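User: Just a sanity check before I run the rest of the batch. Below are the structure tokens for the first item. I only need the designed sequence back.
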């Protein structure tokens, strides 16, 4: 069966949710990068060390709610009509952007950090909803197409928010963010109802206990009432995709964060070259996300996951080799001057391979995560995925920080990520072979 792809964007059961997701991702990045640009080029222009510290604090502030509230978010999404929950979240975003607008106008960093934390909380609550609602509104053969469009739109929205933050004033960024938040709420009002799939269940307000319980649910723990050891979740059909998704986002976060030092240090080029890298990375992930859906014809399958992980690994390893051997023709090279270097095109090809393979890799895993979770527990499984994503990202970032402290250069970090991705590919091939033999 051919995948519906862009035709889903004309359907009410998908288009409003796609718009809400796109606008939310756009706003997250517009607010964060508007704050960082304001700090780097205005407030702390003469204190670069404080600007660097703010960047680290901002990342921690945004990711903290994923650890603290993902379990609660998953429980809420399985108990409340998801369309109604999305409208509440989007209404809260308007209030959050009011705080952000105040901080950007008056240059109040604490207010901006509060807004960023609340946007992290907003994304934490929204996360389980955005994927668990798709199987309620889409047919099975449409899940791959819808997931692919979600991922493609998300990365393009991230790119748009980051780029816009760099070309408009802080005050203008705040006004745009407010308008985007209002637009997101209006789009949320058009989402069809998505009632809970089982009766009311108590919500565990104990964050630690709820987090452990939701992780056991994702792993298919025998302790779960009514679930035997042979349940689909217990044989890795959900847990392995969670680990794969987590590795992808951790490796991607490190790679994108290292674009600037790679360009300014190793490649000796201007900031515009780092922007070019970001554009290529985002667009090619979006293209890979849509292409894998076409190849699978809408079928929910991990057929292309191992080979995509292999492409990701080979791209990262060759990026290590191509950047390590790069000889800059001149300092602070412009985009044109950088592209005039023959070896520069090898670097761009590596980025294309990495990003395209990443899109091909992650979309089927998200589709499997949705379809192999019990419908009444789907939101909590996705919340568990968010918790593991955050945890793996922190571990990988700490490992990379340690490598850098030991004197490993940025190309070496790319190589380490490539070797890690090679392990993921080997695990994928082994799991695929075991499935065929079974």
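Assistant: Here's the designed sequence for the first item:
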């Amino acid at each position: 069966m051919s995948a519906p792809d862009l035709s889903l964007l004309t359907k009410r059961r998908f288009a409003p949710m796609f718009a809400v997701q796109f606008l939310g991702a756009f706003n997250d990045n517009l607010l964060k990068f508007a704050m960082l640009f304001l700090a780097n080029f205005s407030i702390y222009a003469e204190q670069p060390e404080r600007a660097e510290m703010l960047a680290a604090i901002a990342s921690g502030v945004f990711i903290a709610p994923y650890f603290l509230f993902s379990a609660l978010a998953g429980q809420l999404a399985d108990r409340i009509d998801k369309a109604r929950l999305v409208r509440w979240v989007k209404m809260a975003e308007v209030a959050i952007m009011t705080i952000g607008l105040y901080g950007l106008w008056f240059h109040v960093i604490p207010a901006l950090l509060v807004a960023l934390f609340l946007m992290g909380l907003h994304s934490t609550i929204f996360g389980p909803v955005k994927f668990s609602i798709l199987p309620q509104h889409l047919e099975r053969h449409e899940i791959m197409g819808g997931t692919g469009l979600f991922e493609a739109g998300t990365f393009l929205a991230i790119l748009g928010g980051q780029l816009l933050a760099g070309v408009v004033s802080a005050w203008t960024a705040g006004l745009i963010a407010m308008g985007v938040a209002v637009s997101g709420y209006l789009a949320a009002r058009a989402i069809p109802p998505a009632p809970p799939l089982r009766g009311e269940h108590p919500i565990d307000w104990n964050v630690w206990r709820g987090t452990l319980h939701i992780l056991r649910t994702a792993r298919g723990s025998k302790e779960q009432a009514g679930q035997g050891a042979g349940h689909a979740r217990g044989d890795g059909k959900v847990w392995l995709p969670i680990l794969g998704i987590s590795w992808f986002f951790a490796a991607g976060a490190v790679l994108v964060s290292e674009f600037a030092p790679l360009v300014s240090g190793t490649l000796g080029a201007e900031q515009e070259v780092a922007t070019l890298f970001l554009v290529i990375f985002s667009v090619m992930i979006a293209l890979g996300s849509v292409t894998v859906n076409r190849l699978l014809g809408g079928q929910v399958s991990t057929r292309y996951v191992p080979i995509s992980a292999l492409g990701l690994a080979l791209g990262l390893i060759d990026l290590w080799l191509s950047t390590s051997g790069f000889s800059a023709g001149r300092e602070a090279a412009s985009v044109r001057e950088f592209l005039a270097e023959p070896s520069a095109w090898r670097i761009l090809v590596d980025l294309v391979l990495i990003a395209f393979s990443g899109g091909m890799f992650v979309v089927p895993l998200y589709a499997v995560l949705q379809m192999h979770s019990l419908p009444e527990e789907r939101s909590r499984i996705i919340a568990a995925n968010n918790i593991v994503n955050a945890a793996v990202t922190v571990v990988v970032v700490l490992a990379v920080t340690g490598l850098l402290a030991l004197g490993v250069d940025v190309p070496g970090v790319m190589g380490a990520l490539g070797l890690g991705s090679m392990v993921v590919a080997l695990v994928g091939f082994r799991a695929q072979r075991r499935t065929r033999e079974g």
